């Protein structure tokens, strides 16, 4: 009975020991498997991090390339803007030259001057002393140009840079076309400046009045001057 009891005790001891060994093996195996999973995850994490770094480097390079292209586009836009401004200035200059040459009709504010022969004086021996002559018209035209007139016409006939005015008795000839008095001079420009320039004391108006010429001037809000004849 004692021997059997010892066998039973030893059996229980071995059983418990076996269980402990089995449990320890199982626990060690699980820890080993857990360690293997953790290592794989770490490797995956490192791989993803390297991919992220590579992608960030690629993005940085692309951003630098984009910045360079944007800078190039800005330079091209600036160049085009400068060229557009140059073309705009050229177009303005061409329009000014065409207006100066009398090639286009113009309209705007300005002045209208009328030069009429003086009243007949039977005591005056020389009739030319109260007629409007080309030099009277020249004085008015020159003063208008000096005071900023952009276009001038006489009796509706447009003047240009090479126009000529000749006196032929009671009429004047402008570029081959004759005009009788009174002579209506219309000028496009600032009416206040031109009117003041002509009306200065001792100026053009006083000189013509002293020559017995009837001189009148009006400021106009709207003056239309047609292109030069034959242009």
UniProtKB/TrEMBL annotation:
Entry keyword annotation includes Coiled coil: yes
Annotated transmembrane regions: none
Coiled-coil residues: 45-79
Domain of life: Bacteria
Keywords, sorted A to Z: Coiled coil
Annotated Pfam families: DUF881
InterPro entries: DUF881
Family: Belongs to the UPF0749 family.
Protein name in the entry: DUF881 domain-containing protein
């Amino acid at each position: 009975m004692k021997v059997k009891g010892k066998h039973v005790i030893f059996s229980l001891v071995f059983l418990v020991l076996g269980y402990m060994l089995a449990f320890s093996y199982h626990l060690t195996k699980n820890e080993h498997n857990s360690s293997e999973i953790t290592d794989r995850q770490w490797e995956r994490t490192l791989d993803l991090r390297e991919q992220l770094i590579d992608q960030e480097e690629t993005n940085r390079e692309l951003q630098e390339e984009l910045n360079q292209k944007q800078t190039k586009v800005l330079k091209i836009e600036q160049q085009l803007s400068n060229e557009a401004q140059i073309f705009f200035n050229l177009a303005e200059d061409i329009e000014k030259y065409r207006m100066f040459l009398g090639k286009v009709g113009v309209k705007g504010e300005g002045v209208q001057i009328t030069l009429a022969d003086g009243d007949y004086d039977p005591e005056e021996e020389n009739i030319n002393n109260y007629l409007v002559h080309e030099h009277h018209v020249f004085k008015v035209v020159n003063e208008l140009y000096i005071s900023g007139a952009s276009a001038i016409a006489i009796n509706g006939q447009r003047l240009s840079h090479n126009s000529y005015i000749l006196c032929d008795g009671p009429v004047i000839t402008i570029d081959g076309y004759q005009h009788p008095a009174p002579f209506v001079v219309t000028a496009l420009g600032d009416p206040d400046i031109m009117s003041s320039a002509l009306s200065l004391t001792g100026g053009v108006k006083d000189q013509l009045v002293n020559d017995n010429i009837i001189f009148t001037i009006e400021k106009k809000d709207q003056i239309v001057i047609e292109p030069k004849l034959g242009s």
